Amino acid sequence: MNFLLVGTNPENTGAATHFVALAEALAEAGHAVTVVAAPGSLIAVELTGHGVDLRLGKFRNVLDPHGYATVVRAAGQTHPDWLIGNFGKEYWPLVALGRVLRIPVALFRHRTPPMKKLSAWMLPRLAQRFFAVSRYARQAYLDCGIPPERVQILPNPVNVRRCHPDPQQRVALRQRLGLDEDAIVVGYAGRLQRSKGIFTLLIATSVAMAREPRLHCLWLGDGPDGAALRELAQRDPNASRHHFIGWVQDSALWYNAMSMLAFPSLAPETFGRVSVEAQAAGIPVLGSDIGGIPETMQAGVSGLLLPPGDSAAWRDAILGLCDPAVRGPMGLAARQFVEEHFSSASVAAELILSLHTVHHVRTSRRRPGGAFS
Length: 373
Fold this sequence. Notes:
6-stranded parallel sheet; Rossmann fold; alpha/beta; disordered C terminus; 13 strands
């Protein structure tokens, strides 16, 4: 099949990472993939030289004529079977272009806050496919009045070749952090803000460190509550065992330094990409039993689900996974779980299967000369 993916959001977001992984997976599966991305964006940088036809352009808003012109030009040159979009400001332009160019449109929604009432009512009905990234998200859209038959589930894909256990990286990163080989590292990767449960995790790890001298905590990311978190960590008697790295371009490498990942969100997450990435790297996950997080793991097999905000429960879970006899089998199961359910190849195959019926109907309506009947 032939795809035109439009993602001109310049930010480094989960939706952007999803977009990159999906484009790579479709290209690797042998499909023709053209991408319209903003110059210098994460999407453009990551997809350069990865088997896709990259076009640079941007929708500044839904009425931006330059964005429309770029997509029309790309569609005219590549004749795609599908237009695919990931970002809200491009939903309406893609639906409009799909109608004019007679190309079916698939939209991915990565957020659970409802769209504006008109968009929430019309877009899932106008697009040929409307995808939620979790059962939790799908239910949120149904609660807003979207018909069940209009919303399918397709999770975020993860490149399992990029996120994988790497013993050499493990040694190098731990040396960089000044850690012994027998150090046990709880990792956090994400935005440093209160709703992510970072203070619950700080309390839990600080108490656990008092009981387990090998325990360290690795913090990846930054955010509005980062300064307050670092200040509290500095007051900890074991302050030297809290390692703040800041924001990193590629967190995949850093999973190798971890023994376990903590995902302690207090507010519901639509999905939980870091959980899947860490498991792909062979790391068990401690996750809040809230929102879409439970769908990213096998509770009791590849990790543990815990009550949000309960620092005592998180402390006990961390101490439990300090035992390598518990942690080791979970890490092995985590990698296998992701390969089966969230690898780029498996998610791309699910997408093709979902799109095939509409594609078949569309091509069967064409005249031999290529026009529609």
